[in-house]
Amino acid sequence: MDLSLYKVGVIRDLEGCGNSKAKNGKAYKVCSVQIDPDCPEDLVTVVTSASNVRQGSRIVVAPIGSTILTDEGESMTVQKATVGGVISEGLFCDSIMLGWSGGGKGVAAQLPYRFEIGSSPPSSKPRKEEEEKPEEPVIKPAEGLYEKKLTKEEKKKLAEERRKAKRAAKEASKLEAENEKVDTVL
Q1: CA atoms of 20 and 94, how far apart (whole Å)
Q2: Burial class (CB in 10 A: 0-12, 13-18, 19+), 160
């Protein structure tokens, strides 16, 4: 199996896919994955039912145009496909697809952080080693898209602070006006 077309990627964003479910009954997840190390904004969408994917996970992606082995042992070229109503531009490889020993079918192959984004995956399953998670660039959503909603108590407190600030400003302007009157009289 030629793994050179497969890419190491990092899941940058993850969300549910409505009520759509896979044949195995697991819910689909829509993942935005970075597979190009030079362009962190250029993300590939992958729809999966793998339960072990998390935001920040380093996984192996079979992008469009790569070849995978099906359950029947036949070669199949990965193509753009609609899964759960969302266009998927690749798929996550499990250990079996990569020819690794260990790991289960349908469980996305996870890699340690030492594997570079965009590189080819190793030919055998890497052993877990203690290593620190490096700082990755975080892509922030546009301002105002995902702001936290305030609770009732927080809204009341904020309104009270605004009222106090308004009263203080009003008092300050009254004092200033009185001082100006006194200055003009003198």
Answers
A1: 21
A2: exposed
d(CA 86, CA 174): 61
The closest of 5, 79, 12, 89 to 47, measured between CA atoms, is: 89
Cα–Cα distance measured from residue 44 to residue 13, given in angstroms and rounded to the nearest whole number: 11
Write the pLDDT tens digit of every residue in 14-73.
888 766 666 666 778 888 898 888 887 888 888 888 888 888 889 988 888 888 877 777
Helix (H) or strand (E) holding 60: strand 58-63
SS3 content of the chain, % helix, strand, coil (to 5): 20, 30, 50
Neighbour tally for 72: CB within 10 Å: 6
Helix ranges (DSSP H) in the chain: 95-98, 152-185
Question: The pTM is what?
Answer: 0.61
Residues whose CB is less than 8 angstroms from the CB of residue 183 and which lie 6 or more positions away in sequence, other chains included: none
Q: With contact defined as beta carbons under 8 Å apart, do 108 and 59 qualify?
A: yes
Cα–Cα distance for residue pair 136/142, rounded to 1 Å: 19
How far is residue 83 CA from its own chain's centroid?
Answer: 19
Which residues make Cβ contacts (< 8 Å) with residue 93, sequence separation at least 6?
6, 59, 60, 61, 62, 68, 108, 109, 121
